[in-house]
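Example 9 (inverse folding). The structure is encoded as follows.
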């Protein structure tokens, strides 16, 4: 079993299951659901940050890298989670947020107190650059009353770390090894392609300054040092880099096995095809032609370059895909299963985001008071400042907020969806119909189980090459996988209408391996049909 035939399930711990009644999910809640996860067939669970944090950015502002925030439980609870997961053949992947640290971390506090050793852990300059924070506003803030400024590419409470400083690198390598010694084999590295910054940071108005700090060449050197000093010593390690605004060429270098950097990479280009003018906080239908072109380009080039894609539609930073890409009011189940097939049969490692396996959708929040995400709250103010009415601004937040995917897991149709006996930290979504009790025997969950099992059992899916197909077809995304003489043609209809097609002659005598419908009309795909032909 390698990362090529594994499926990774992402858990947002705050929202998975609360066992204490404080309205926040916890480690014992995850432990209580390991049998459910084992039934689904997943191989690894990725946990978003569970470390001590002021929670300004829901745990991505870390104040202690090697402890468990009491809101999630104790280190003993974590050790129990590792043991219980292992009993079920499930490994754990932790989120390593190594580009920045909370301003509540002792390193920043000591720097602020005047300790030059720790001041060199950060980017502190006399003059700020013109860079823009990814959460809006300047990427610089006053460093105490020194008259200098410190860099924060994200929230003002998330200070960027200076990876040029070998003392910083050593501290961070020690963090990864601390969790390896706890039995952790998986690591997701948060915005790790931002760590290669220059010593002296200078202004660059291009794309809000991104070229000055994204995918810089030193990033590869640092990843090779990190690999050698930590997870590279573990033959079972699975590592994934979250790559912000990256390129295919860099992702091949980040994930090509001989480079000894990472196992695979997340890129987000396919989740920006519903951005007007490349801007997230806009309202725009998705561009299907651009979506399939991106899948084909990334699929073929990563295959040719021996790179490895993390395949996903959902995560904690994205609205749920069913809302973005599917006529979900009429075709929720078919749309959910079609989306699943479009990545689980492709080349890469699929990620299932909690609730995706039961077809969860965005909540119907009715006012800004329902939203808590710092990025969304900042964006709402920016939309008002740029002339949007409150109604227009709210409509954009409703479709784009990260809170959409962070609502509590929907276990049943009781109050709070069976997530908590207390008041949930974030309101629940529409769990009356969409919940595990209703859906676990239903089409979506069972289809995910089938896809996950196929990846384990057939090397054509885990190892096969990727080749684009039906590129000119207006509503069809299709590709061919090939391995040791066997071929799989996967066709997905991204529309709510039947679509005619001509089956490639080489597949005329094929068998149907996967179909999210119970029937097949020759040379016609039904609305949101996903079908795979094997020869
Ligand atoms: O996200 C990186 C990132 O760029 C996010 O801003 C994300 O792309 C954006 O919100 C999409 O609109 C990582 C984590 O996944 C995210 O939760 C953190 O807020 C961020 O880094 C800072 O650590």
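The amino acid assigned to each position is listed next.
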């Amino acid at each position: 079993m390698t990362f090529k035939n594994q499926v990774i399930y992402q858990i947002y711990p705050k929202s998975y299951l609360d066992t204490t009644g404080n309205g926040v999910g916890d480690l014992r809640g995850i432990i209580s659901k390991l049998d459910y996860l084992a039934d689904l067939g997943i191989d690894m669970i990725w946990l978003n940050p569970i470390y001590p944090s002021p929670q300004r950015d829901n745990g991505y502002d870390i104040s202690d890298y090697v402890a468990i925030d009491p809101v999630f439980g104790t280190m003993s609870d974590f050790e129990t989670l590792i043991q219980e997961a292992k009993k079920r053949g499930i490994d754990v992947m932790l989120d390593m947020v190594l580009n920045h640290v909370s301003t509540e971390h002792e390193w920043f506090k000591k720097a602020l107190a005047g300790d030059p050793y720790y001041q060199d852990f950060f980017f502190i300059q006399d003059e700020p650059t013109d860079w823009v924070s990814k959460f809006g506003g300047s990427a610089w803030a006053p460093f105490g009353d020194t008259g200098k400024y410190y860099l924060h590419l994200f929230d003002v409470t998330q200070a960027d770390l200076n990876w040029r400083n070998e003392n910083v690198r050593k501290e961070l390598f020690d963090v990864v090894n601390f969790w390896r010694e706890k039995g952790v084999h998986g690591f997701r590295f948060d915005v790790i392609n931002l760590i290669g910054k220059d010593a002296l940071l200078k202004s660059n108005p291009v794309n809000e300054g991104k070229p000055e700090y994204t995918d810089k060449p030193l990033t590869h050197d640092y990843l090779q040092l990190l690999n050698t000093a930590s997870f590279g010593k573990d033959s079972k390690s699975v590592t994934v880099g979250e790559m912000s605004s990256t390129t295919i060429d860099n992702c091949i270098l980040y994930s090509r096995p001989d480079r000894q950097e990472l196992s695979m990479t997340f890129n987000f280009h396919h989740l920006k095809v519903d951005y007007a003018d490349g801007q997230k906080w806009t309202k725009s239908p998705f561009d299907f032609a651009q979506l399939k072109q991106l899948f084909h380009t990334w699929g073929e080039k990563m295959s040719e370059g021996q790179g490895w894609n993390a395949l996903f539609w959902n995560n904690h930073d994205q609205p749920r895909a069913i809302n973005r890409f599917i006529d979900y009011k009429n075709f929720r189940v078919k749309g959910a299963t079609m989306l699943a097939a479009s990545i689980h049969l492709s080349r890469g490692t699929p990620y299932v985001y909690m609730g995706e396996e039961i077809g969860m959708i965005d909540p119907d929040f009715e006012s800004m008071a329902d939203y808590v995400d710092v990025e969304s709250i900042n964006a709402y103010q920016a939309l008002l400042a740029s002339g949007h009415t409150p109604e227009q601004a709210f409509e954009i937040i409703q479709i784009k907020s990260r809170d959409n995917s962070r609502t509590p897991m929907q276990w049943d149709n009781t109050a709070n969806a069976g997530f908590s006996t207390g008041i949930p930290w974030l309101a629940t979504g529409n769990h009356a119909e969409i919940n595990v009790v209703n859906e676990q025997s239903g089409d979506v969950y069972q289809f995910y189980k089938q896809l996950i099992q196929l990846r384990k059992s057939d090397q054509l899916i885990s190892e096969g090459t990727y080749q684009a197909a039906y590129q000119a077809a207006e509503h069809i995304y299709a590709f061919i996988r090939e391995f040791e003489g066997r071929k799989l043609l996967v066709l997905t209809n991204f529309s709510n209408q039947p679509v005619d097609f001509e089956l490639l002659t080489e597949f005329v005598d094929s068998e149907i391996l996967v179909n999210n419908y119970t029937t097949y009309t020759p040379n016609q795909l039904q609305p949101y049909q996903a079908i795979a032909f094997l020869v």
